[in-house]
Structure formats: structure tokens, C-alpha cells
């Protein structure tokens, strides 16, 4: 979950490192540090807290040099303090490393190293790597890193430099690394946005890759030293795409980017003449007897919408699993299972390991992924890219709605291919999906946003929230509660509305706002009955209704109207309102919505 940046070239490395680390702040961190090589020495500077703390130190004590590595740390072993921050150096300061991931056998290795006379400065597992490399070093840094990594178990993205070598050596297993290729300079990072200001030519490293970077190029091998070919990919994003674009926060910018993101997800895939979709998927839909959807967090809720859509339209049994539990419950998997993994980054470690578990037992695999070149995309049988573009805000917005839209298309594809959905039904739903960018743009109309802001500020000081929805919009309620928790820190729960009387109804009193998704659906009447149960207990009802529904407006203390949408695609439109409710609640409370406490954008350790 940490940020890595490396540079070798003719620029001042310090400037590149700080710029890149700033672009990776969205990943979540508790300390930052850099190491710069110059004039026969490597100087390390690191500080706990925000990157600004480190930048302030560097302003007063700049580090000259054109080779350097930098890191933002999210603590796993050892407290977040200056000492435990990365980079870590050997006792003589000649070898310096940064590391993402976890070394599972570090305690045993540390005891052995201490027994051989090594002195440790930090409490981290990562420092073990520096000492292992030091022991293995005999003039060849690349070989020393290779020998050291042969002794460790765990997940890592490791970057190493040595005072005697003008080169950077890096390797990865699980934790992502990407290289940027420039003219007479090379870059390295844990994610693309760190490099976009300098180059759009990227090389995505695979699991088990090791790379040596020089001023004029790079060489990739596997961990055994065998040469590997890795192609240079031209990234279509530019640096501006990863900036705020005039909005106060990345999150708000990304909320407003959703019409374009949805257009990118849907474009070229919908065929009005036949009521079919073309997803460029080579899997055989007739071979699947069951589907497992596997994901974490927001992606999990997108998967719940997918479950509803696929079962209804394609008539295949679907189960949705939290990825962190999937491989530990001994799931029933066969060659007739389709495992669908959902991840914005394509690097989420729990989801990646669940994918590997499903493959081990013969399942066919499909990914609903945003990031190209990610670890999952290299292990999947097929990938349905959502093309949402870079998402910097930790709380997912445009990636979520694009994932849900992808499931709409996937359910349509499966239904038409399996003959469970007629051409007329397919055409109807296809047209509904095609309308999504326009409907979301309408949901973001100034008067609608102003109304949600007004309601959010009214209840911003509530201690608790309850979200209710039914049918395909029960996951929308879960997503609404998650967004509110993530960025406002208000305790929020969500339930399928019919479950309210099985426990949550005990919570309802005059101090509890209850957000109810009651847009047009075949279950609307039942949802309104649940609303009446809330009102009978003095709960404050925030009612989300479809435009023109004045009949049911009388059941809400506050009413928010949303554009009419076909029930099957309405979770996309309704999610936008949930995002705005959470956003304006958090900003009313003065919270940093882009960097909520304790959270990171990409979870790459278990």
C-alpha cells in the first residue's frame, strides 16, 4: 500500500522523487523518505507524517545528485516514526533499499543476521533485506539482490542502490512496479501517476521480474537470471488527467468525471440492431454452471449488483465472496465455474490470491479491472476493462459506477448468448445502458447537487446513519454506507430494507437519519412500507425518489429526486447520489476526503 519512486538520469533526483511521491499520496502512508547518491555517498532523509514534513527538511537541506529512490510507508511492522520510515541502509550506509510488502519469515532471518553481527536500527521487516544483500554482495549488486531474495518468503516490491554502482536494481513479487522510459533517463514507481509528468512510455513488471536501470535503458530478468522481454506501453493518460482539474478535491473531480467514464466503459460495446453486446471475451458462456464473483470493499458491492443482474438475465447461479475469505472456506470450484474478480487496481492482494485459488481448481477466470498491465490481468483468462481512467481519490466513485455498468453489459452478454434473454428484452436493456452517461450527467445538475448538499449539511452531525434499499439497489445502500464511513467517519449501517425489522429497527429514534433508496422499481411499494415503519418510530427519513413521484414524497422528511432510470441500471444513477451525500457530509465536517485516515487506495498486503 506504499509508494515507490526511483530515478536515474540527468535531473536532480530529489525533485523527481518528491514530485512522484506527491502523486502517490492517495495510496495512504504514514511517513516518507528519500535516498540520493552523489560524490561517493548515499544520503538518506526521512520523516514521519505527511510528505510536507520531508519536503520542508529538504528545502533547508537539499540533496544534490542525479540518482535516487523515494518511498511513502504505511506501517505494517513497527510504529510510524522517523526510524522505521524508508529507505533503510546497511550499517556502513553503502547499500540502501526501499520495500513494499511483507517479509513473512523476517523474524527468523533477523535473529540469524544479528547472530552474525548485524546491527538493526528499525523495527521493520524490510531492513532484513538490506542486511541480506550486504552479506551476499561481492561486487555484483544484481546478483546480491537475487541471492538475498532467494532467502525470503512474502510479498515485495524492492528497490536497491549501492554507493559503488550507478544503477538501480528492483524486483517484484505481488507488489506492483512500473518503469518509465525517458531519453537518457529511467524512472520507477509503484503506480503510473507518479511518472506521467516525465514520460508516458511505461514497462509493467511481472511477478518474479528483476530489473536493472541505467541512464540509457534497462534489462529485465527473472529471479533466476534468465532474460525476459517486456514491451514498452504508451499510456494514454497525460499528467493533467491525474490532477484535480480545477475541483477542490480529486474525489469531487472524479464524481463529475462519471459521465465520461461511463461513456468510455460502454462505447463500442453496445449494438442497437441486435440487442447484443460485444465485450471481446473469448470465454464460452454455455460452459458455465455457476459463477463466483470475488472482490473487496467497493468492488464487492459492485459484484453484488452483478449477482442480481446475472441471475435475473442469464439464469446462472451466482455467489459473491469477500476475497479475503474465499480461499479459506474451501470453495466448491470446477472447470464449469466462472470466477469473476473485480478490482480497480488489479493489484488487490486478497483478490489476487483468491483468483489463484480459483484457477488452481480449474475455474475459468474473468476480471473486471480498471488498470491495464496490472498483476491480475496477466493471470486472468480474459479481462473486461472498464476504462474509467486514473482514480486518485481513495474512496472509489467513477470506478464503482463503471464496474456496475460492466456488470450490466456482462449480464446482457451472458443472457443473449445463453438464450435466456430475447432480442426485444436485450434491446430494451441495451438502450437503458446507453442512457447511463446522460442520466448521470443529469443527476449531477447543479440544482440536484445543491439539494443533496443541503440535506447532507442538515444531518452532518449525526452520530449514526442507516441506509436501506431493496432488490438490485440493496447493494447501493451498502455502497452508500461505506462511502459515508470512509470519508466522514460517521458510523453507518446498511440493510436490505425488508431486513430492517429483523434487528436494525431497534436502533431507530428521532436522532437517526435513515437514507432510503426508493426510486422506481417493482419493489417500490414494499420499500415505502419499510419507510413507514421508520417514520412510526420517529426516524428521520431521507428519501431518494424518481422524478415526479410526488405521491411517495409525503413519506420523507427530506426528499431527493433522481432521474428516471430502468430498474436494472438504476444502481449506477443512484450511487452518484450516495457519493454526493457522503462527500458533502465529510466536507461539512472538515474532513480530508481524498486521504481518509487509515485507508489506502490499493491494498497490496494481507
Description:
- The chain is 34% helix and 23% strand.
- The chain is of the alpha/beta class and 606 residues long.
- Helix 14 (436-443) runs parallel beside helix 19 (570-588).
- The longest helix is centred in the last third of the chain and has 21 residues, at 398-418.
- The chain starts with a strand and ends in an 18-residue tail after the last helix.
- The model has no long low-confidence stretch (mean pLDDT 92).
How many runs of DSSP E, i.e. beta strands? 26
The helix content, as a percent range, equals: 25-40%
- Coarse shape: globular
Structural class: alpha/beta
Structural descriptors:
alpha/beta, single chain, 606 residues, six-stranded antiparallel sheet, 34% helix
List the SSEs and their pairings.
Layout lengths: L2 E6 L4 H11 L7 E8 L2 E8 L2 H10 L6 E7 L14 E2 L5 E9 L2 H10 L11 H10 L4 H9 L4 E9 L5 E6 L4 E4 L4 E4 L11 E4 L4 E6 L2 E6 L10 E2 L15 H7 L1 H9 L3 E2 L4 E2 L12 E6 L1 H18 L3 E5 H4 L10 E7 L5 H12 L3 E6 L5 H5 L2 E4 L12 H21 L4 H12 L1 H8 L2 H13 L5 E6 L4 H15 L2 E6 L16 E5 L6 H12 L4 E7 L3 H4 L4 E5 L7 H19 L18
Parallel strand pairs: 17-18, 17-19, 19-20, 20-21, 22-23, 22-24, 24-25, 25-26
Antiparallel strand pairs: 1-4, 1-10, 2-3, 2-4, 5-6, 6-7, 7-8, 8-12, 9-10, 9-11, 11-14, 12-13, 15-16
Amino acid at each position: 500500500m506504499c509508494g515507490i519512486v526511483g530515478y536515474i538520469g540527468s535531473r536532480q533526483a530529489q525533485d523527481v522523487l518528491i514530485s512522484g511521491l506527491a502523486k502517490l499520496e492517495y495510496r495512504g502512508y504514514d511517513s516518507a523518505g528519500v535516498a540520493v547518491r552523489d560524490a561517493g555517498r548515499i544520503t538518506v532523509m526521512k520523516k514521519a507524517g505527511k510528505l510536507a514534513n520531508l519536503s520542508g527538511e529538504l528545502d533547508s537541506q537539499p540533496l544534490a545528485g542525479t540518482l535516487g529512490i523515494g518511498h511513502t510507508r504505511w506501517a505494517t511492522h513497527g510504529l510510524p516514526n522517523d526510524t522505521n520510515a524508508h529507505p533503510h541502509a546497511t550499517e556502513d550506509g553503502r547499500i540502501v533499499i526501499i520495500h513494499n510488502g511483507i517479509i513473512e519469515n523476517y523474524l527468523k532471518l533477523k535473529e540469524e543476521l544479528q547472530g552474525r553481527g548485524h546491527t538493526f536500527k528499525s523495527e521493520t521487516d524490510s531492513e532484513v533485506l538490506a542486511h541480506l544483500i550486504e552479506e551476499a554482495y561481492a561486487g555484483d549488486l544484481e546478483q546480491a539482490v537475487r541471492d538475498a531474495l532467494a532467502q525470503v518468503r512474502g510479498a515485495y516490491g524492492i528497490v536497491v542502490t549501492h554507493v559503488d554502482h550507478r544503477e538501480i536494481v528492483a524486483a517484484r513479487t505481488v507488489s506492483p512496479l512500473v518503469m518509465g522510459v525517458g531519453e537518457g533517463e529511467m524512472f520507477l514507481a509503484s503506480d503510473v501517476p507518479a511518472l506521467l509528468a516525465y514520460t508516458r512510455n511505461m514497462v509493467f513488471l511481472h511477478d518474479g521480474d528483476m530489473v536493472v536501470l541505467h541512464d540509457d535503458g534497462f534489462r529485465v530478468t527473472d529471479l533466476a537470471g534468465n532474460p525476459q522481454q517486456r514491451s514498452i506501453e504508451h499510456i494514454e493518460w497525460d499528467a493533467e488527467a491525474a490532477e484535480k482539474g480545477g475541483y477542490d478535491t480529486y474525489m469531487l473531480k472524479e464524481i463529475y468525471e462519471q459521465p465520461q467514464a461511463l461513456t468510455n466503459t460502454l462505447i463500442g460495446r453496445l449494438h442497437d440492431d441486435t440487442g447484443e453486446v460485444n465485450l471481446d471475451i473469448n470465454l464460452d458462456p454455455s460452459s458455465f454452471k455457476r459463477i463466483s464473483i470475488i472482490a473487496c470493499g467497493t468492488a464487492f458491492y459492485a459484484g453484488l449488483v452483478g449477482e442480481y443482474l446475472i441471475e435475473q438475465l442469464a439464469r446462472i447461479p451466482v455467489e459473491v465472496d469477500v476475497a479475503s475469505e474465499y480461499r479459506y472456506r474451501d470453495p466448491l470450484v470446477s472447470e464449469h465455474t466462472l470466477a469473476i474478480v473485480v478490482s480497480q487496481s488489479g493489484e488487490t492482494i486478497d483478490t489476487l490470491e483468491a483468483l489463484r485459488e480459483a484457477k488452481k481448481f480449474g475455474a475459468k477466470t474473468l476480471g473486471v479491472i480498471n488498470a491495464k498491465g496490472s498483476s491480475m490481468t496477466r493471470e486472468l483468462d480474459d479481462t473486461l476493462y472498464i476504462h474509467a481512467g486514473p482514480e486518485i481519490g481513495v474512496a472509489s466513485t467513477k470506478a464503482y459506477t463503471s464496474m456496475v455498468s460492466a456488470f450490466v453489459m456482462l449480464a446482457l452478454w451472458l443472457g443473449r448468448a445463453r438464450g435466456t434473454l430475447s432480442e426485444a428484452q436485450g434491446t430494451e436493456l441495451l438502450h437503458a445502458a446507453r442512457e447511463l452517461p446522460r442520466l448521470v450527467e443529469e443527476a449531477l445538475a447543479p440544482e440536484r447537487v445543491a439539494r443533496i448538499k443541503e440535506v447532507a449539511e442538515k444531518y452532518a452531525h449525526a452520530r449514526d446513519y442507516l441506509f436501506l434499499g431493496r432488490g438490485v439497489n440493496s447493494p447501493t445502500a451498502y455502497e452508500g454506507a461505506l462511502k459515508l464511513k470512509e470519508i466522514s467517519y460517521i458510523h453507518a449501517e446498511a440493510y436490505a430494507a425488508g431486513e430492517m425489522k429483523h434487528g436494525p429497527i431497534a436502533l431507530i429514534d428521532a436522532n437517526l437519519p435513515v437514507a432510503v433508496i426508493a426510486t422506481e422499481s417493482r419493489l417500490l411499494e414494499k420499500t415505502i412500507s419499510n419507510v413507514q415503519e421508520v417514520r412510526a418510530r420517529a426516524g428521520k427519513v431521507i428519501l431518494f425518489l424518481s422524478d415526479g413521484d410526488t405521491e411517495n414524497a409525503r413519506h420523507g422528511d427530506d426528499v431527493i429526486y433522481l432521474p428516471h432510470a430502468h430498474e436494472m441500471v438504476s444502481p449506477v444513477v443512484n450511487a452518484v447520489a450516495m457519493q454526493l451525500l457522503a462527500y458533502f457530509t465529510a466536507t461539512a465536517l472538515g474532513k480530508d476526503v481524498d486521504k481518509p485516515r487509515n485507508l489506502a487506495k490499493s491494498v497490496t498486503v494481507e
